[in-house]
């Protein structure tokens, strides 16, 4: 029987790095037109709990659809990749990782797991648990940002890079280009990318997934204001902002906004910043681009990535794509 291997953790992102990023992003976002706050700041402990609740709502299909593909095709995916190292970008609690780890273990090829995320506490807890669950597995956690630290990932072995959950849709076209360019430079010729993308579908179904009847997504959206109040000494009153979710037909994406219900003045103490909101003014908090298989393959090709296989969910709601470097 294999013994438990103590996990390791490489830290490329400190608390002061995260603080500087927060201050920069909020100052830039609140002084831009339209105002905007990156969605990464939804996810404090409360925001993470709210999002977990969202994934179980009847309107929110992406998590269930992606899970159904992994349940049905995880073995096909790992067999096609021939990987012995799983790298998960934005790993979080590593729940979905287990389906791929199980499939890799069943082939006898599983050797190492490299989860990357910005939260050292969450990552270390997940790494410790996985080391116990998979005796003999090397777990090398990496605290970092997939926008900046792909070149710092361990390079030995044949790697399967998993970027799941439709997170790629949160990046605008310029950010996607930078991400895929950096990833292509980090990948070796025998590495593979497993990419999860939400697909274009009935517009009402898309909007409802981001504007549920119970109002959980609305509370999740407003949570970013609680984060700014706590972390930067802002004086937002979340009750004075309405949740808005709409479909942008031109860019094929859902957009989440916070709409000021009245004219109001906001002070952000830690930034010494004063911000005015007009009645009805909206602030962008998240985009979620939806894809179609053909254009997605063409976009990946433009970044030097060749699609090898695609696995859609039942009803063509979600898609997992396996790609390699050209």
Concise overview:
This protein is an alpha/beta fold and 326 residues long. It contains nine helices and 13 strands.
Q: What do you see in this structure?
A:
The protein is globular and about 65 Å long. The protein has a single domain (1-226, 291-326), classed as Rossmann fold (3-Layer(aba) Sandwich), CATH 3.40.50.150. With 326 residues, it is of the alpha/beta class. The protein has helices spanning 15-30, 45-54, 62-81, 97-107, 120-133, 173-186, 203-209, 216-232, 293-302, and strands spanning 8-11, 85-89, 112-117, 138-143, 159-163, 192-198, 241-248, 253-260, 264-268, 273-277, 282-289, 305-312, 318-325. The strands form 3 sheets. The chain has an 8-stranded mixed sheet with strand order 1-4-3-2-5-6-13-12, with helices on both faces. The chain has a 3-stranded antiparallel sheet with strand order 7-8-11, with helices on one face. Helix 2 (45-54) packs antiparallel against helix 8 and helix 3 (62-81) runs parallel beside helix 4.
The CATH class label is Alpha Beta
Helix and strand sequence: EHHHEHEHEEHEHHEEEEEHEE
Please give the radius of gyration in angstroms: 20 Å
Secondary-structure class: alpha/beta
Model regions low in confidence, pLDDT < 50 over at least 5 residues: none
């Amino acid at each position: 029987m294999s013994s438990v291997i103590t996990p390791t953790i490489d830290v490329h992102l400190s608390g002061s790095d995260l603080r500087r990023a927060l201050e920069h992003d909020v100052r830039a976002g609140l002084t831009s037109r339209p105002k905007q706050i990156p969605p990464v700041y939804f996810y404090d402990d409360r925001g993470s709990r709210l999002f977990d609740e969202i994934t179980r709502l009847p309107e929110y299909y992406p998590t269930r659809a992606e899970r159904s593909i992994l349940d049905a095709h995880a073995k096909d995916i790992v067999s096609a990749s021939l990987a012995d190292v799983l790298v998960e970008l934005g790993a979080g609690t590593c729940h979905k990782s287990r389906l791929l780890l199980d499939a890799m273990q069943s082939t006898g090829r599983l050797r190492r797991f490299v989860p990357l995320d910005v939260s050292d506490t969450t990552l270390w807890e997940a790494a410790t648990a996985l080391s116990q669950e998979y005796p003999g597995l090397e777990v090398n956690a990496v605290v970092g940002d997939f926008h900046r630290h792909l070149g710092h990932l361990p390079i030995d072995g044949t790697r399967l890079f998993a970027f799941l959950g439709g997170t790629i849709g949160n990046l605008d076209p310029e950010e996607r280009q930078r991400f895929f360019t950096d990833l292509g430079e980090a990948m070796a010729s025998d590495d593979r990318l497993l990419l999860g993308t939400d697909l274009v579908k009935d517009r009402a179904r898309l909007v409802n997934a981001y504007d549920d009847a119970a109002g959980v997504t609305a509370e999740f959206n407003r949570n970013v204001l609680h984060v700014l109040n706590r972390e930067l000494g802002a004086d937002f009153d979340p009750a004075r902002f309405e949740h808005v979710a709409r479909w942008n037909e031109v860019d094929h994406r859902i957009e989440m906004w916070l709409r000021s219900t009245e004219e109001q003045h906001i002070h952000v103490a830690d930034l010494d910043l004063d911000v005015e909101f007009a009645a009805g003014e909206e602030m962008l908090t998240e985009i979620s681009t939806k894809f179609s298989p053909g254009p997605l393959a063409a976009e990946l090709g433009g970044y030097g990535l060749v699609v090898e296989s695609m696995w859609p969910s039942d009803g063509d709601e979600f898609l997992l794509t396996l790609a390699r470097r050209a």
